[in-house]
Task: inverse folding
């Protein structure tokens, strides 16, 4: 079964003009790789973070967000994570997509131009309206949280 296609208007910014657009690495991939549009290598020391530009601005379809998520290989091999993961690009945002990168590893990490630094997933958004009430329905869990469902 083929997933439905949604069109995303994208504008390449001057510092990202020579980089490929985000693409799915395989036919079954959920995320598209985002590339670093840095002019020079950026070194992120252990515990440090940096905002990495992608050189892209987008206009998302109505009712959608673009989720920015970490790449598992970078997390496993280098401790590179996205501290606000998943990051959200709202449908009405028209600025450059930037990726906040945190080095949770033990060695300095260098981001180079064209490096795959994150993945983007287009996702539908449901809008919520609050219905204030004096009571809520009962459940077996009730108000238990933070480990209340058991320990293994």
Result:
């Amino acid at each position: 079964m083929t997933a439905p296609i949604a069109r995303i208007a994208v504008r390449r910014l001057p510092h990202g003009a020579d980089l490929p657009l985000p693409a799915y690495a395989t036919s079954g991939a959920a995320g598209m790789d985002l590339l670093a549009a840095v002019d020079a290598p950026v070194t992120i020391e252990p515990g440090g973070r940096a905002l990495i530009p992608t050189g892209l601005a987008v206009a998302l379809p109505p009712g959608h967000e673009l989720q920015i998520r970490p790449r598992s290989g970078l997390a496993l091999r280098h401790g590179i994570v996205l501290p606000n993961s998943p990051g959200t690009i709202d449908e009405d945002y028209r600025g450059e997509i930037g990726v906040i990168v945190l080095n949770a590893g033990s060695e300095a990490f260098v981001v180079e131009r064209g490096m795959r630094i994150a993945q983007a997933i287009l996702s539908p958004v449901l809008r919520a309206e609050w219905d204030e009430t004096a009571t809520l329905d009962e459940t077996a869990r009730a108000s238990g949280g933070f480990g209340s469902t058991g320990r293994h």
Q: What stands out?
A: The longest strand covers residues 49-59. DSSP finds one helix and eleven strands in the chain. The mean pLDDT is 94.
